[in-house]
Amino acid sequence: MKPPTTGSKCRIISLDIETYAACIQNIHGAPLPQGSVFHPNKALHIDKVAAKDLIQTVAITLPKKNPDLSQDPRVWLKDLEPGDTMVFKYADPRQRAILENWIRHSTHLVGMNIWFDITYLWAMNPTWFSPFSHTIVDLSVLIYLEYEQRVELSLKSIGPVLGLYIYNETLKGGHRFPNPKALGPYNAQDTHNTMLCVQELSKKILQSKFPGDKLSPYCISHFSDLIWLCILMQSRGICFNQPALVQLERMMLSQMVAISQLAAKYGLIISGTGSEKSKKALLNKVIEEVDKTLPGKQTVLDDKRLEKTEKREDISFSQENRNLLRSFLPKNHPINGLLRLADLYAVCEKTHTTYLMPLLKHQSKRPSNKKSIIIPDNTEELRHG
Asked: Is there a domain that residue 69 lies in?
């Protein structure tokens, strides 16, 4: 493990991190939680991992020969052969300092979905990066440029197809390594193989019949800037007014209760036990009233625009069906009042279950899934982790 020397010409490194999700225990033997999210702030809030345990190891691979990065990328990408690889235990301050020197010394970063790695490192070390501080060469972009319909989109799947490598052990299926020491070799493989794939795919692109401007300075710069924009948006997040959303949820729930009670006075059970039978009875009544407006023995049931349920193919109590049936009736028809109550309830319920509940509590149909909830700003906790 060596820091960059003064005047070192190596300005490009392949970078990859491994987080708590890949390890059962940290460097001190303490247990680490399972990983369920891919953002440092969410990891603290949802997975309840300590900030100091977010990153377990970081690997970098240097090129065997230092390329002249001032040249056209089409000149040096095809010759970007991996050389020495270093793995850093992130919890070790001395090793982390060497890693920092390499990142600060470099101008180009190679990676696979590297937005993830930079997002974590930058969140915990705000001085290591600045917006657009490095030119990014992401393997996922080269896979797309080489053949946009390729199905092998991961580092693990692309290797065998290119005839370069095969992993004996991966994180697939929730597998985790015992500790950072055991994780290190796997981390090292990733940075080495990423650079190897970048070299091979660059050759394929440049040797293709119509390479066009792929891998041109503009192309590399364009995708690098695009990835940086994604990193910046990931880092900033989207601000929500949580008290306002809580107030809106209360209002929606209150309105749903009021609508249910009003509908019940007219014989419609709009939610809960007996609601399906009640809504079906209302639908049959509406169809009966619509048929009265049609000439002869025509029935609205023959209208192909009516939506049906998947399993039993009954006429659905959907918004589209209610709108269609309502269009046949006079605006002042008494049954329209019940249909409007159903519409109002559907709007409140949709707002609550689809938007408010996932943001404030959990997914409506999966209470254990809290990935979409609003999280507090953990910036200071991350930086002092």
From this structure: yes
- What domain range includes position 95? 12-237
Longest dimension (CA), the chain: 94
Q: Does 207 lie in the same domain as 250? A: no
Question: Same domain for 308 and 230?
Answer: no
pLDDT in tens, 41-98: 999 999 999 999 999 999 999 999 999 999 999 999 999 999 999 999 999 999 999 9
Q: How far apart are the first and last CA of the chain?
A: 24
Of residues 196 and 2, the one with the higher pLDDT is 196
Domain total in the chain:
2
Q: Taking residues 152-176, report their average pLDDT.
A: 94
What pTM did the predictor assign? 0.79
Tens of pLDDT, residues 4-16: 865 678 999 999 9
203, with CB counted inside 10 A (0-12, 13-18, 19+), is middle
Instruction: Considering only residues 259 and 315, tell me which one the structure prediction assigns the higher pLDDT.
Output: 259
Q: Report strand pairing: 55-63 vs 108-111.
A: unpaired
Residues 216 and 261 in one domain: no
Give yes or no: residues 219 and 253 share one domain: no
Residue 26, domain member (yes or no): yes
CA distance 130 to 322: 54
